[in-house]
Amino acid sequence: MNDIDSSLRIEAARPQHAAVLLSLVRDLARFEKLEHQVVATEEQIRDELAASRPVIEALIAWDGAEAVGFALYFHNFSTFLGRRGLYLEDLYVVPSARRRGIGRALIAHLASIAVARRCGRFEWAVLDWNERAIDFYRSIGAELLPDWRICRVTGDALGRLGQDGTIHNR
Fold it and tell me: What 3-state DSSP class applies to 11?
């Protein structure tokens, strides 16, 4: 737990927080005009958080009993460094709680986790139109990598590609 001020705190998300986390994810998706893409369920999030080897972890920022932000993250691996890294999938603070240092506190909390876990990197992506976020990330020392682009395969294309890659034993 990391106290920001007397009423604000950051805690690790637990399975019982799945509904709260999903609500914040939907808020983020509305902000990004991508709500139609949210198909995650409370049960899926609860199951991931409760797994014996969870794929995801999350932090929730609380103002008293109200959840006002979250950071969802997981580990990746750098073959060049030979070490795992921490990847921030989503960071969001509700509009009414912005400009109070909550986003910075969530990022700093994640950085401390990365250091404690001996991660070689702490990375995330940002939408190119989100200038406020880009400015914020630069202000905390993040470097935007101009030579990298995110590649994604989903839906039918993923199914086709997966079928093409299947090796059949004879």
Answer: strand
- CA angle 123/95/115 to nearest 5° reads 25
Handedness of CA 69, 1, 51, 107 (dihedral sign): positive
pLDDT of residue 165: 75
pLDDT in tens, 140-157: 999 999 998 889 898 999
C-alpha closest to that of 61 among 110, 15, 26: 110
The answer to whether residue 170 is domain-embedded is no
60 neighbors 70 (Cβ within 8 angstroms): yes
Which residues of the chain, if any, have pLDDT below 50? 1-3, 170
- What is the pTM (predicted TM-score) of this model? 0.89
Residue of 73, 87, 92, 137 marked catalytic: 137
Q: Work out the number of other CB atoms within 10 angstroms of the CB of residue 4.
A: 19
* Inside any domain, residue 109: yes
Other Cβ atoms closer than 10 A to 151: 5
Residue at 117 is within a domain: yes
% of the chain beyond a pLDDT of 90: 86
Catalytic status, residue 73: no
Q: Which amino acid is at 37?
A: Q
